[in-house]
Amino acid sequence: MKLHGRHLLGLDGMPREDIQLILDTAVSFKEVLERPIKKVPPLQGKTIANMFFESSTRTRLSFELAERRLSADVVSFTTAGSSVAKGETLKDTARNIEAMKIDMVVIRHSAPGAAHFLSRVVNANVINAGDGSHEHPTQALLDMFTLREKHGSLDGLRVCIVGDITHSRVARSNIFGLKTMGAEVSVCGPATLIPREIENLGVKVYHRLEDVVQDVDALNVLRIQLERQQRGLFPSLREYHRYFGVTKEKLARATKPITIMHPGPINRDVEISADLADGEHSVILQQVTNGVAVRMAVLYLLGISN
Amino acid sequence: MKLLLKNGTLIDPVSGKDEMFDLLIVDGRIEKMGKSLSADKAAQEIPLKGKIVAPGFIDMHVHLREPGFEHKETIETGCRAAVAGGFTAVCCMPNTNPCIDDESVARYIQEKGKSVCEGIVDVYPIAAATKGRQGAELSPMAELVDAGAVAFTDDGSPIMSAEIMRRALEYSSMYGTPIIQHAEDSTLTHGGCMHEGFVSTRLGMPGIPPIAESLMVERDVTLVRYIPRARYHVAHISTRGGIAAVRAAKKEKLNVTCEVTPHHFTLTDEAVVGFDTNTKMNPPLRTREDVEAVKEALRDGTIDVIATDHAPHTIDEKEVEYTLAPFGIVGLETAVGLAITELVEPNVLSIVQLIEKLSTNPRRILSLPPIQIKEGERANLTLIDPTVEWTVDTQRFQSKSKNSPFHGRRLKGKAIGVINNGKFRLSQP
Fold first, then answer.
1. Hey, are the CB atoms on B322 and A12 less than 8 Å from each other?
2. DSSP code per residue over B202-267
3. Which of A260, A150, A170 is nearest to A216 (CA)?
């Protein structure tokens, strides 16, 4: 079984069987991660570059771990240490990386479409590790993996994404992926942070958590960034927490336990209360564990496609 | 120079002619016009059966980039592109460096225009409405008019201050020169790089809402209503709302006109999917409904002019992340083909209406003398083959820049030659 494309740029338009294949493959890799020796050989001899033009701890570590556990050779950089600071264009940086005979590139960048751009100018397989507010496909895949693990199936599962939808690549990739897999998706957040015409993606829009909690199996809570307040998108963190923060009180009307997810890093007691983040229905740390397995699956499937 | 244009269909909105005529042109003047002029040994005969002879086209929205940005385009390469596209005149925008806010720059550009391509293209500067295009103080409009400026604009940037816009409209009204507005309320467009709507939501791209345009047009129309003899022209209109505001203003008999670009009647924001930076322009590509509104407005006369917003950028400038790429595409060499393919073929416009929007109307708006196609007059003509099918190849562009989203597109109809100022050029087939 192989994926349809040579790259993982996003989940928008990715066929259901490809998502299925990645999630199924990740199951075996998760099993590998339980072993005393967590290393397998499929990408031996392959070289992978992690190009992070935006700071990231979790995603970068997760990719590096996944790559090393598949026995790939790994080089990484973040903007501070790269030639980008010297004014080199993304195209030139990419071509130089490729001149060093890199097989796969993982890119994180602040511009939507940066991974697409890269896939046009280099021959390596490109994996999008987040492009601006556009997509973060491996995050959504690991979210779906975690939901499937917990609930058995994504078909008919009711998931609400809470917070700043407009600026969230996690939200977009989750919407595309979950819809393809047959889940019911809704979003909940302030009207200023819900992008226009998102209903046309087949999601329901809410502005009060209390209205959602009776009809939902899982909440995927997004990080709220203070800089959005400075741009006039919401009045204060205090108000945000009181009206959009996920708390026990707001979940009081739920008729059954709701799975709590968060892509991290968490602002404790801002978008989510600490007790829920650490509570029995939180799968936030499982998401992190699963992230390595899912990224191993993606790297493996793209690696063998060459 | 002695030319015999043989068997072409003369279409002249000014005289109302739409029939086969032969024209004998001697030293740049129309010496004889008739049904079948006899061959003249000394004259070069141009067989034009099935082709159209029209008054010379003018593109009233061109960025020639000189002075200051000669790596993108020069007056010479821009004029070559104009000739290839069938234009005998271009109006160049003031966002040069130095910008056209001083008579010396206006005069320099016209001098240069006369010296390139044997002066076949008339180059008319459009000067800045405010000093340095900063939107704060009026440019020396009277001096600029005397130096040949045909209109004023801060194009690229809107005139945001209502106060400055009011004064610009008042001051320019003394000279009958229009203020051309890049209609965008920039307080609504911070960081935007495509139309705000479903596609921008899907792509996670910062959006430019359509109301940024319509709000500005509505405000400006309010100012025009208040100011006697104000003349106002909306550059590159793109939204249903903006068009509605112009239509309402025209109904009130206000002196309000507008133009549309070929890309805004051809493409929608769906073209941005895939992140090709040659789909990034300002105003951005809009929705299918907006394109339909544009076509309706072309048909009912709300949109007076087709102008290209020819905006050359180098490959290196465009081959970057979408959000970092500069706005704009080149348009001179695809305008006629796109207009015939997208408007004339599907019966949105008749060929006569198209010629009005490419020649008669822009000349009227800019107070340029109408082109007379009759014996004794200077020949200022564009020759069109309305049926030839061709494929856009940016590598064959005369423009220095190749930033076009239409590369590889099949088009029907093409300008095949221009005659102006005693010169004659055939475009390459």
1. no
2. HHT--EE-THHHHHHHHHHHHHHHHSTT--EEESS---HHHHHHHHHHHHTT-SEEEEE-HHHHH-
3. A260
- Distance in angstroms (rounded) separating the CA atoms of residues A177 and B68: 48
What is the distance between the alpha carbons of residues A25 and B170, in angstroms, rounded to a whole number? 71
Contact B320 A109 (CB under 8 A): no
CA dist B266 and B143 (Å) reads 39
Residue B20 near residue B64 (C-beta atoms within 8 A): no
**Residue B138: which of B113, B173, B171 has the closest Cα?**
B171
Contact B321 A172 (CB under 8 A): no
DSSP B360: I
Peptide bond preceding B55 in cis form (omega within 30 of 0)? no
Q: How many helices (H) and strands (E) does chain B have?
A: 13, 19
Per-block mean pLDDT, blocks of 10 residues, chain A (306 long): 93 98 98 95 96 90 98 88 65 86 95 95 95 97 98 98 97 98 98 97 97 96 86 91 96 94 94 96 97 98 87
Nearest CA in chain B to A194: B201
A114/B contact by beta carbon, under 8 A: yes
Contact between A276 and A247 (Cβ < 8 Å):
yes
CA separation for the pair B297, A21 (Å, rounded): 51
- CB pairs < 8 Å spanning A and B: 65
> Is residue A221 within a helix (H) or strand (E), and if so which, with residue range?
strand A218-221
Amino acid at A134: H
Q: Between β-strands B381-391 and B52-55, what pairing exists: parallel, antiparallel or unpaired?
A: antiparallel
| Residue A111 DSSP one-character state | S
B318: which chain A residues are within 8 Å (Cβ-Cβ)?
Answer: none
Instruction: Kindly determine whether residue A116 and residue B274, on different chains, have CB atoms separated by under 8 Å.
Output: yes
| Nearest residue, CB atoms, A196 vs list B201, B323, B324 | B201
Q: Are B264 and B291 in contact (CB under 8 A)?
A: yes
Q: Omega of the bond prior to A265 within 30 degrees of 0, cis?
A: yes
Residues of chain B contacting A133 with CB distance shorter than 8 Å = 204-206
What does the angle CA A61 – CA A67 – CA A71 come to, to the nearest 5 degrees?
135
- CA of B42 to nearest chain A CA: how many angstroms apart? 56
Which sign does the torsion angle of CA B221, B222, B223, B225 carry? Answer: positive
- The predicted complex's ipTM stands at 0.95
Catalytic residues of B, which ones? 309
Q: What predicted TM-score, i.e. pTM, was given to this entire model?
A: 0.95
